[in-house]
Amino acid sequence: MNPFGDQLLNVITFVPLAGALVLLLLPKEKNELVARLATVFAGLGVLVSLPLWFAWQSAPTDGHGFRFVFESNWIPSIGAKYIVGVDGISMLLVLLTTIMGLIAILSSWTAIQTRVKGFYVFMLILQTGMIGVFVSLDMFLFYIFWEVMLVPMYFIIGIWGGKRKLYAAIKFFLYTLFGSVLMLLGIIALYFYHEKVTGMFTFDIRYLQAMGAWSGWFDLQCWIWLAFFLGFAIKVPMFPFHTWLPDAHVEAPTAGSVILAAVLLKMGTYGFVRFSLPMMPEATKHYLPYALTLCVIGIIYGAMVAMVQKDWKKLVAYSSVSHLGFCMIGIFALTADGITGGVLQMLNHGLATGALFLIVGLVYERRHTREISEYGGLWKVMPVFAVLFMIMMLSSIGMPGIPGNGFIGEFTILMGVFALPQKFWAVLAATGIVLGAAYMLWLYQRTMFGELSNEKNKNLKDLNFREIATLVPLVILSFWIGLYPKPFFNILAEPVNKLVAQVEQTWQYPDKVGKLAGDDVLVRLDELEEAMPEEGNEVH
Amino acid sequence: MLDLIWLIPLIPLTGVLINGFFGRRMPLKTVGVIACATVLIAFLLSVGAVVQLAGSEPNPDGLRIHELSLGDWMPLDAVSVPWEFSLDPLGSVLLLVVTGVGFLIHVYSIGYMAHEKDYARFFTYLNLFMGMMLTLVLAGNMMVMFVGWEGVGLCSYLLIGFYYDKPFDLRTGLTCADAGRKAFITNRIGDFAFLIGVLYLAINFGTLTFSEISERVAHAGPGAHGLLVGVGILLFLGACGKSAQIPLYVWLPDAMAGPTPVSALIHAATMVTAGVYMVARMSALYAQAPEAMAVIAAVGALTAIFAAIMGTAATDIKKVLAYSTVSQLGYMFAACGVGAYVAGIFHLMTHAFFKALLFLGAGSVIHGMNGEQDIRKMGGLKKKMPRTYWTFLVATLAIAGIPGLAGFFSKDEILWGAWSSGNKIVWLTLAAAAGVTAFYMFRLVYLTFWGTFRGGDEAESKVHESNSLMTVPLMVLAVLAAVGGWIGIPKLLTFGKDINLFHHWLAPAISLPHGDGHGVEASHSAGLEFGLMAVAVGIAVFGILLALHVYKSSTLPQKIADTLGPVYKLVRNLFWVDELYKFAILKPFYAACRGFRWVDIHVVDGLVNGTRNATLGLSYISNLHDRIVVDGLVNLTGWVTTWLHRMLSRVQTGMIQTYLSVMLLGVFILIAYYTLAG
Fold first, then answer.
1. Helices (H) and strands (E) in chain A, counts
2. How far apart are CA A232 and CA B182, in angstroms?
3. Tens of pLDDT, residues B382-420
4. Testing the interface with B: which of A382, A440, A449 to mutate, by most B Cβ within 10 A?
5. Beta carbons of A244 and B178 less than 8 Å apart
6. N or C: which end of chain B has fewer CB within 10 A?
7. Which candidate from A379, A404, A415 shows the least CB-CB separation from B202?
8. What's the ipTM?
9. Under an 8 A CB cutoff, do A449 and B161 touch?
10. Residues B42, B43, B45, B47: what is their CA dihedral angle, to the nearest 10 degrees?
11. pLDDT at residue B678 is higher than 70
């Protein structure tokens, strides 16, 4: 099932990078060869990631719920190690990344005509960066991957983008860099505080997560939480840090938009799940009302702004703001259902919005405009396209059963949020379901229905085999999650329950907040040592 | 057979796959046959399942029910939702109506849609609808029902917008696609409330399975009363969307943009009754929440009369029937609201027969009139389309409540249920609505089939009767509309002998307040019941006679309209409800959206760009400072040095004469200084 042993995650992470290196060796003029080879490497990336799914049950965990862990010394002088490993949450995100990466590359064969080689090299480097973020179990390593990812995306938008590509690329880069620098401060603060208490310099996420159980560092926690919050909230993006997104999406080439929506935005939500919640549970609870408020504003505001967009891509971009608000409100509900739903919805949003960007890209390639008013009546000339668009639109608006994945996510989230004592959060969030249908159906109607009145649209070709092949996997996955999501729930149950326990553990001792007693710390140290992975438990 | 009920929804879905993938390349006939065959198989399976259910042993509560689970679907922390299906007497009625009437309408559609280009697409949608409707009916829990519930809504959206490139209502500028979207969004508003209700149920009772909900709410205790009333009203709001009740009925009249068989199947016989079905399914919950039932009764009765009045002024043959449907659905809800669930479901069934027949008849008329739908341009079609006429007349008599026909029995049972439950106002409203119903239906018959043709000679010459693919289903439905009511004949009319099969079959599936298992059958005087029946029939006959009197004359209708003046205008414009929604909700909403867009560009992004500009500005100033002040100082030093250098270098001419001259000059100055100073 898993031919790579404990090297599995290394293989998954670096196959794309190896592909990029191979591409670099090819002559520049061989555009077709470059595109095909890039696709082969992305496909290889998917293949090597499959053992994650199929060998999941049989893989041992490291005692912290992480599997396929690989550990090696890296920079001993500062305690930074090369540690990779995945739990159910990151495993699903890695699979999403490899699949969406392949689809994004496959969708670029005809769309990218200039500097072809550079494009695919950047796409593959980006792929390695994104996977690296999800598999890192060392915060230093995590941060490196986090920043590495920015660079290729910057070039993808800045070189192959639309008219205002430079504005968008620089805005994207600076905005997210601003956030990640603050996050770096947070990481360093955590690192030193961990050393102050335990005497151990480490970036190991598994040890740092144990800090969530410590009491007595509430004030510091709050500062660090805010620093992380800015870093992640910009990436998600949560209202009011979202304005880089429409620009980046609109200007990016199709593949860039797909990756941006499907994977890059998940970095932020993933960050909350992996760092803010387990490491700083008290601060999370302290800022919860504000965070929930921003989520609700994001859901409603994003949907309402999407309602009145004239640009097809911008509409989908704002729908992302709304949907990510939904993911975040689930996560901030801090209940098992809420977090499970939030993670599921990350996948669903990746599939649905990734597909919607592909769909915009397909017509953009034919007509070179994104103005909704330029279209109308496309069903007549592109019926296959129209049906696939319909299915993924229904996924996006949370139709149960057809294909149903969006509904599963939304319902699970609402269930989780509804467990909060204040019912109005769920009620407000649920309005997103009505609004989502409103703007999406209107978009669909304006583009696919109506008379085929625009001369330029009368001879549009329906999708060819390659184009269908980019969308069909997303349709199949959507139906799968919609009709039989049980495997996903099973995989998520363990990490989510652990996370909920981590968040709740200090919840039970609110009286200790603000006191740092020496004895207390010593007790915690003992527990910490017990919690460390023993040699025998480690995966080899 | 009972263990295979989950197959029943799947069979039409195979039709979706076949026709969806290959339909465009298959001959039209094959497409139609596949679509009909899947529904026929579903119907036969349904009959088999219901027969087997009838033969099975009832559980201790006297209820025959078969439940099965296909495994987990959403194993949530708060509530686990399996793929559950169940069949009980309530579901069996819907099951047979949906598959039976559905099959007839499929057959009819082969004829009706014969000239359509998008034949395969139509039958794909239609089969998808059947699959979803059967999922809704056979669902064993609220979420599986919700799959069907939303699924039929989607099919409704797709089928209303089937002619997606055509305008629909020239007066309002609505296109068919608009009408479909309106239906979907209006339904979603109801579903929003429905989902909130479901969340309350799940959190508080830990289950969404119907049988478990029934059991747990029954033992919920008085503390849960407020919760149950709230949930009951939220669920009913969902039903208001699906079943077109006030305030969410506005989509149904516009749903007539779809092809007529769709109006018959979805917007008359099956989908729109889903709300009633759901309320009846939740009767155990409503039994604990009489206040919610009162709301249902009030909304139902109000909708019944309100929509009936709107039906009197409509001039589109299908819109008359659409308002009639809204009104009749109001009857069903009113029945549920007063606890006469059996009567409500009975009416659901008879209504499916006669209203499907009316719509299919209207479709036949439209087909025969080559697309004309305005009844002001019809008249005298009786002779040209005899089969359509006679079947239409049977359905009209049935809906008007003429004794012996299906509608009479069910409507009478509802009226009696309202009276005997003590809701005299509901009774009065419904009885009045019955009169209005008889009036607008005979107005329709008069203007369409009687009198003389008003559409011009050319149009008249083209009028033709439809082929037998269309008229045979009409005749089958006419038989059902005529005799379908006898299955639920009241004891009163059988000389005290109880042969009301329908009631006996259905009653165990229903829970009523106060543990009263037989609600409306409680002791009453036969004379009173008979008297009320006579009054209801009298009202209906009065409505018919009035219509005949008014429309016999060619000038009287106009005169009445003129006399009523503003009242007529109000009705003709449908009480301006659409306009009210537009100005009170939609316009402000869109304005808010545009406002937010402005805020996004100028405030939120403005801050970001402002930060950028501020940074750029600061950089500019730093740059200036750097260039002028810092660099200036550096350069100044340079300049000064250069200047000094230039000055001094002049001195260094390298010529002995100059040096000597300067030296001499110096000597002279020194001598002069010391001489003068000394």
1. 23, 2
2. 38
3. 888 889 999 999 999 999 988 889 989 999 999 999 998
4. A449
5. no
6. C
7. A415
8. 0.89
9. yes
10. 160
11. no
